[in-house]
């Protein structure tokens, strides 16, 4: 799978985080200008943060890098990993706007008291050993804009509390042990990036996907099963990267993927997808990477896709294609990387055996006959 990191999450230098935090903070304050005027003093905001952080420290059972060793006393803005910024309406008032404990290797829980961090805009806990479930009190974090819980040991069903966060834009839950279905509401929230890959999600990608505003959606390495719902077209106005690698998808790829006109990356490799490549993909003028490898696609590789102007890497190895139209048979000549090994291409080396190919050719795929497990 190609790895696409979202610029904001790359563990930023402290300076970057701080400037980002205060700008996010300011934008959000502008968005939330309908809320009641802040009369609280510095003490009250930071005092609540102090209660929250002490409660958190109390349920941290391993901190090999001593990140929380200086979480002592009321000056929470001096704690490692805690970033304060002036509260927009009153620049004399400091508030805890960001927490960055990325790569701290801390083991522990998230306590209910985190709901006292009302001013938090960024919470980055990537690569720790936090476990258990997310406290419902997180619904109190009405300014939270980025939530990165990736690479921890969170368990249980999809943490619905994130659906109640009005300012959330970036949600990263990848590399945890969440299980069960994804709620359809996840895809009607105003999120820019959704990472749910490498969990234990099951029960199919919701077919009643609402209109989403996400530009990046990574479903990879889960056990969804079923078909890719045609409602994927509801992402059309924003989606640029769709990664469905190894999600146990079956059936045919719906022609609606061709409606995702902003798509730059489409990776459906390592599934059980069958039938033809939808010709609508030839309309994806911005497509740069197309990976269809390790499926059961058959039929022809249409020239309309091979001539896409931005296409730089087209992998369709390990399928049952029997013909490459026109330039598709030598994409190197137009500077596109391609891989056509292990298909049924009579003129090409490193193909499947005649026996394997015949077995598939004898059972033509009827895309309408799939019931997709619904
Ligand atoms: C900020 O100040 C504006 C105008 O002074 C006020 O209307 C608004 O409620 C305040 N916002 C917050 C979050 O306190
Ligand atoms: C953390 O603190 C303990 C006790 O003071 C010390 O033994 C250990 O070396 C420290 N670890 C790091 C990574 O600084
Ligand atoms: C917090 O850090 C600042 C800057 O390093 C320092 O001036 C201040 O004394 C510290 N406050 C406390 C209470 O440690
Ligand atoms: C939510 O925030 C309010 C206001 O700061 C606070 O009084 C309340 O205790 C918080 N709730 C939880 C569950 O932390
Ligand atoms: C594919 O996804 C499953 C979960 O559905 C996971 O157990 C497996 O490790 C993944 N395979 C690879 C190569 O990542
Ligand atoms: C081309 O795409 C394949 C499959 O996504 C990937 O494994 C390979 O690294 C890519 N090649 C380059 C040079 O990006
Ligand atoms: C593909 O085209 C390139 C450049 O036009 C040529 O050098 C190469 O031999 C061709 N490869 C095949 C497999 O036809």
TrEMBL record:
<keyword id="KW-0732">Signal</keyword>
<dbReference type="InterPro" id="IPR051582">
    <property type="entry name" value="LRR_extensin-like_regulator"/>
</dbReference>
<dbReference type="InterPro" id="IPR001611">
    <property type="entry name" value="Leu-rich_rpt"/>
</dbReference>
<dbReference type="Pfam" id="PF00560">
    <property type="entry name" value="LRR_1"/>
</dbReference>
<keyword id="KW-0964">Secreted</keyword>
<keyword id="KW-0677">Repeat</keyword>
<feature type="signal peptide">
    <location>
        <begin position="1"/>
        <end position="23"/>
    </location>
</feature>
<dbReference type="Pfam" id="PF13855">
    <property type="entry name" value="LRR_8"/>
</dbReference>
<dbReference type="InterPro" id="IPR032675">
    <property type="entry name" value="LRR_dom_sf"/>
</dbReference>
<protein>
    <submittedName>
        <fullName>Leucine-rich repeat extensin-like protein 6</fullName>
    </submittedName>
</protein>
């Amino acid at each position: 799978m190609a790895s696409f990191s979202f610029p904001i999450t790359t563990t930023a230098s402290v300076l970057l985080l701080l400037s980002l935090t205060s700008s996010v903070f300011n934008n959000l304050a502008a968005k939330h200008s309908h809320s009641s005027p802040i009369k609280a003093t510095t003490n009250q905001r930071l005092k609540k943060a102090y209660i929250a952080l002490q409660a958190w420290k109390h349920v941290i059972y391993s901190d090999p890098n001593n990140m929380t060793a200086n979480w002592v006393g009321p000056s929470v803005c001096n704690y490692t990993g805690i970033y304060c910024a002036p509260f927009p309406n009153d620049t004399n008032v400091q508030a805890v706007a960001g927490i960055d404990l990325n790569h701290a290797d801390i083991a522990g829980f998230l306590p209910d008291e985190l709901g006292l961090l009302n001013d938090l805009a960024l919470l980055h806990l990537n690569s720790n050993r936090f476990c258990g479930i997310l406290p419902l009190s997180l619904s109190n974090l009405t300014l939270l804009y980025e939530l990165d819980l990736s690479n921890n040991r969170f368990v249980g069903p999809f943490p619905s509390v994130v659906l109640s966060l009005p300012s959330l834009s970036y949600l990263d839950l990848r590399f945890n042990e969440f299980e069960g279905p994804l709620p359809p509401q996840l895809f009607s929230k105003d999120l820019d990036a959704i990472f749910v890959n490498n969990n234990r999600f099951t029960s199919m990608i919701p077919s009643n996907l609402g209109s989403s505003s996400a530009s990046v959606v990574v479903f990879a390495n889960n056990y969804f099963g079923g078909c890719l719902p045609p409602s994927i077209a509801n992402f059309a106005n924003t989606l640029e990267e769709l990664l469905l690698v190894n999600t146990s998808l079956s059936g045919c790829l719906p022609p609606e993927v061709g409606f995702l006109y902003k798509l730059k990356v489409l990776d459906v490799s390592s599934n059980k997808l069958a039938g033809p490549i939808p010709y609508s993909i030839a309309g994806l003028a911005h497509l740069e990477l197309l990976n269809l490898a390790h499926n059961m696609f058959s039929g022809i590789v249409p020239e309309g896709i091979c001539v896409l102007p931005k296409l730089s890497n087209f992998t369709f190895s390990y399928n049952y294609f029997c013909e490459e139209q026109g330039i598709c048979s030598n994409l190197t000549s137009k500077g596109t990387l391609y891989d056509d090994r292990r298909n049924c291409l009579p003129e090409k080396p490193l193909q499947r055996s005649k026996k394997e190919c015949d077995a598939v050719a004898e059972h033509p795929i009827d895309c309408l006959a799939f019931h997709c497990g619904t």
